[in-house]
Amino acid sequence: MKSERPRQLSTAEERRETVLRTAIGAFAARGYWGTTTTEVAKAAGISQAYVYRLFPNKELLFTAVVEHCFVRVRASLEEGAAGAEGSSAEVVLSAMGAAYAKLISDNDLMLIQLHAQAAAVSEPAVREAVRQGYARLVEYVRGASGGSEAQVQEFFSRGMLCHLIVSMGAFEVDAPWTRTLSAGIRHY
Known about the structure:
188 residues, mainly alpha, 0% strand, globular
């Protein structure tokens, strides 16, 4: 006879994390406006009512996803800075850029960032989450790299260009315009 172990119920925090991970995939695929909480609940294997208990509305769920992604970006940049083979701003920024390029090879994370930027145009709570996320990242990059204003701006500009290149599959097209845009850009 098979011994039965008592079923272990997950905590609200574990469920919250499950919903966030599931919501990343759902929002990445369909964006803020195209994703329903019903889809997220179904994919997470829980009821929509439970999703609403954890996140009272879709806006709060999406902003939590956006904030989660900014935490992942920050961790990636920290890892890059820690692994830099030197302390000059250029070396540290380059190491952080390489770590970020690897991170966005996870298309879901990059797509969340793109969808969040699009939703920020008309959704104040999303706009605030994006602003706060970038504020923390800019200050981290400035402090960790010791870079000038221009160097930090260039770092973020290249990151945005990476988003464009990856999202349109520029590396798949061999043409003068794609070579111009992707010159010096890392792709994983």
